[in-house]
Specification:
The chain has 7 helices and 9 strands, in the order αββααβαβαββαβαββ. With 199 residues, it is of the alpha/beta class. It has a single domain, classed as Rossmann fold, CATH 3.40.50. Strands 5-4-1-6-7-9-8 form a 7-stranded mixed β-sheet, sandwiched between helices. Strands 2-3 form a two-stranded antiparallel ribbon. The longest helix has 17 residues.
């Protein structure tokens, strides 16, 4: 059982990209599957004080409060029983309002428990993407700022790329895309910022 939580998640960190993705998902037939890899989490007791990424603080006091909350969260997350919240799955569900199936992969049982508590219908799977293949495919795979935190970026990218269905979409941060995506040997074309289609 892994209790490690990779990084602090904060509100609206990837909101603009989730909204960008929504029309692409709505054009897919049936009930598309969306796989969210490594969403991270924050402690529930501090989550309300974390800075909103879509509305940056404008005063020095607000910036200090956000920084203090982030550091407090990093310390409190180490306490095994403290409750967590994972913002990304909740915000993805809000942004993509057409019917879809959400699947979340993380190496932390605590993160997955937080997702399951807030989104009981989500499929949750504990997988270390640097060491193991993802044993299913999805129409959309989202992996923001995850690969850089793994022990093997090349293997993690290969596993993520393999999980994208043919003609499916991959949302990937620029650092990972520039460093690893071409090395997978799988052909992707850029659709728009941070969004790639598997060919």
């Amino acid at each position: 059982m892994s209790n490690r939580v990779g990084s602090t998640s904060w509100p609206r960190r990837n909101w603009v990209y989730f909204k960008q993705l929504a029309p692409h998902v709505s054009r897919m037939s049936g009930e598309p599957s969306i796989l969210l890899v490594g969403p991270g989490a924050a402690t529930r007791c501090v989550s309300g004080y974390l800075a909103d990424a879509s509305n940056p603080p404008t005063t020095r006091l607000a910036r200090w409060r956000g920084d203090f909350a982030r550091y407090a969260d990093q310390a409190l997350r180490r306490i095994p029983g403290i409750a967590l919240v994972s913002f990304e799955p909740l915000e993805l569900q809000e942004a993509v309002d057409c019917p879809h199936r959400l699947i979340v992969v993380d190496e932390s049982d605590r993160v997955l428990a937080a997702v399951k508590r807030d989104l009981p219908s989500a499929g949750c799977h504990r997988i270390d993407i640097a060491r193991s293949y993802i044993p299913f495919n999805a129409d959309v795979v989202i992996a923001f700022n995850v690969i850089s935190r793994t022990t093997d970026g090349e293997a993690a990218t290969q596993h993520i790329a393999n999980a994208v269905s043919l003609n499916g979409l991959l949302m990937l941060d620029d650092r990972s895309a520039n460093q690893w995506l071409k090395k997978t040997g799988i052909r992707f074309e850029r659709v728009e910022e941070k969004l790639y289609r598997r060919k």
